[in-house]
Amino acid sequence: MSKKQPKLSAPTVITGHANADFDALAAMVAASKLYPDAVLIFPGSQETNLRNFFIESTTYLFNFKAFKDIDPASVELLVVVDTRQRSRIPHVRPVLDNPNLRIHLYDHHPDSDEDLPAEKSVVKFWGATTSIIVDEIRERGLTLNMEEATLLGLGIYEDTGSFAFNTTTPHDFKAAGWLKQQGMDIEAVSDLLSRELSAAQVTYLGELLKNAKTYDIHGVDVIITEISTDRFVPDFALLVHKLMDMEKIKVVFALGRMADRIHVVSRSRNPDVNVGQICSSLGGGGHEAAASATVKDKTLAELRDDLFALFYSQINPQIVVDGLMSRPPVVIEGDKSMADAVELMTRYGLKDVPVVSANTMKCIGIMGHKTADKALSHHLGDIGLSEYMTRKFETVEVKTDLYRVMEIILSNRQRMLPVVDGEELVGVITRTDLMNMLIDEPARIPDSLLPERRRERNIAAQVKNRLPQKMLNLLKSAGDLGHKLGWEVYAVGGFVRDILLGRPNFDLDLVVEGDGIEFARKFASLSGGRVKAHSKFKTAVVILDDGQRVDVATARLEYYEYPAALPTVELSSIKMDLYRRDFTVNALALRINPGRFGQLVDFFGAERDIRNRTIRVLHSLSFVEDPTRILRAIRFERRFDFQIGGQTMRLIKNALNLELFSKLSGTRVMHELQWIMNEEDPLACFIRMQELGIMAAIHPLLKLTKDKVQILTELGKVHNWYKLLYLEPEITSWKLYILGMTMGIKREDIGQVTTRLHFTRKEEKDFKQLRDMIGDALMKLMGWREGKSKLSRLYSILHPIPVEGILFLMARSRKEHIRRNISQYLARLRYVKIDVDGKDLLNLGIEPGPIYTIILDRLMRAKIDGHVETREEQLEMAIKIFKEDLVQNGDSTEN
């Protein structure tokens, strides 16, 4: 068997986008002149000619490697050419997780929302990325050989259409001229770009010609053509080039349905048609003159409809904001109250109103009628608008085109769009205004802009890769049952969130658009298990034979009758069910019915917030309705290393100013605290709560001091240490951390905390007793000396104390030898057993009575101290102790 080769260390790596063209390949080689020690990673290409050229020539000339051959962890600098988008470099995705990774970018494409953050970003809107890097090579005084110059020239010629595309700039000509001076072989470039077509390609080209249709879009002729085949068509882009040259076409969109997806190749020689922007809306990319996209889960007819919608909104758009907006706008000043906003919106029949600074027309927020109404129902009508208005919103200028308006209102779900002239608010466009205008347009709204369509991304592959087969089978079984019953079934909440985050989470919550309790009973019967139903809340828990729990809920909307109340439940749809969730990142659903398995339902931008690592509430009164969500926000923020969003943070501070925690029952507060105390790093949550004033809001005695932070830090360490040993019994985390949080509180005051947190009588009694036992043990431990005091003495001090108290003592002690010996007690001494019991004492002729306790205790201490190891030695010592007791008529148990 051959020995496995070690991975190559590659501190600097150069790569380009997946499905590379000649410009990407050439730009990678050009970049290697600027980074001479770099390893080049070829991203793969669908173009046959490019693949053959790469295989036959490039690997022999340049330092190309396969990604599987390098050590991803060794990469310190990643150089990306001809793209900036994270999604277009999946072949090096593991490298992006490297700590302290530096990124350099060279690109000529427009900006996008998923551009990588970079230490160096060279972006120029020239015809080819290769031209940009050639310019830097020339500026540095570097030289090229003939092979390098020819390859770089090939990249420039291809991406500028041999300088025929409108995106060609004087810089591209200048770069090509310099490459000619370096020895570029123009005949070789021409041969590679003007290659002969195969018989099959000629047939496909004939189909493209036959199916080509011309459409007049705002005075611009656009050609749409298509082919359909069950196999992949190599060099599809080449066929489109040939079609343009043969028919003298200015703008073409070629759709190739190949197997289970449609490939879109678009070219434009008309400055009014930016094919890069159109293909970007389809999930692809490119630049003004040349672009492409790959589309799944659509028919050719559906894709044509999408294209027409994009054409009418983007090609020479004649509709601009100025002709669509309502003016003058009805506004409300920011110093007004929620009640004032309700009165104003009711009077004018408005769903939203722009909020402006006092005595100006500068828009500072948007207030929704629904939010204001809710505030009044919670008796918050006197609260100022600034507390609950939406502060994060988009605006447009009066000359903005229609597509941008559609993006904001439809895709970003901003119902009202302020129109500004500089900082002056001059009008508004509402969702209703936009929809009324679109009714008269001969095109549908682009699917890419509709949240309802966009949310249906299929993540079945991620589900299969990240869940064990057993859990996957459970999901499919539940989906099949839903299908038989005629109900949609969804996995929801944190289970779906953690699939996207790649975190293990087997707490399965299902929502049924039907009768959740009936579904649960049938599912338990089918899968084996039992059901606990809660008719009041229309929920059930299925407990399977292997212990797996599945929570089942009827799709519902929860509403709250007063601040901090328990929810009242009504039937509703999955959208309303998700809307009741605490944060957007938890407002996700996954379809599990057959035929739609793996489709992600995201109404509220959860994927975006997960990508941006943001915790955001779904509506402004979320914390008023349920202040415990503040504790959950902090828990999720710390667990996932996310950040609470700005608006959400303002709402938290507002809830604290309203003293809403005082209206919460101790049971609910304690429940959330227990969840926090089960996190991997509870202290991080406590410190965050302290920063926001939450600890004091729960109870002033819980405010963290420097000493408390120190003890909580140590408690976290000993807690983790104990868990890693897998010892019994398991720790009740909340008891451990409450000991730390109440350290220093006087005995007579501790009842205030236990009452606030609604301890049961037994919990309160046990907790106070535990604190007393710890205090007594601390005094005794101060007198214990290693090497002088017996281990049995340490055993006697610690043995009566529950494990949480012992861990507290370990964290509390500043003496290393005491900590070391406490750990010895936990890991070994408490498991010491003697080989003699009451039956043995009876067989020795000793009558049962208090003497049994004395003898067994003495034997245990003797064994711990190493005086009696064997059973015989212990029996002998038992007789001796009994005889001494007879003589002395009793014996002290103290050493």
Automatic annotation (TrEMBL):
Cofactors demanded by this protein: Mg(2+)
SUPFAM superfamilies per the UniProt record, alphabetical: CBS-domain pair, DHH phosphoesterases, Nucleotidyltransferase, Poly A polymerase C-terminal region-like
Keywords: CBS domain, Magnesium, Metal-binding, Nucleotide-binding, Nucleotidyltransferase, RNA-binding, Transferase, tRNA processing, tRNA-binding
Top-rank taxon, per record: Bacteria
Matches recorded under Pfam families: CBS (PF00571), DHH (PF01368), DHHA1 (PF02272), PolyA_pol (PF01743), PolyA_pol_RNAbd (PF12627)
CBS domain ranges (all copies): 325-383, 389-448
Position of the signal peptide: none
InterPro entries: CBS_dom (IPR000644), CBS_dom_sf (IPR046342), DDH_dom (IPR001667), DHH_sf (IPR038763), DHHA1_dom (IPR003156), NT_sf (IPR043519), PolA_pol_head_dom (IPR002646), PolyA_RNA-bd (IPR032828)
Family according to the record: Belongs to the tRNA nucleotidyltransferase/poly(A) polymerase family.
Protein name: Poly(A) polymerase
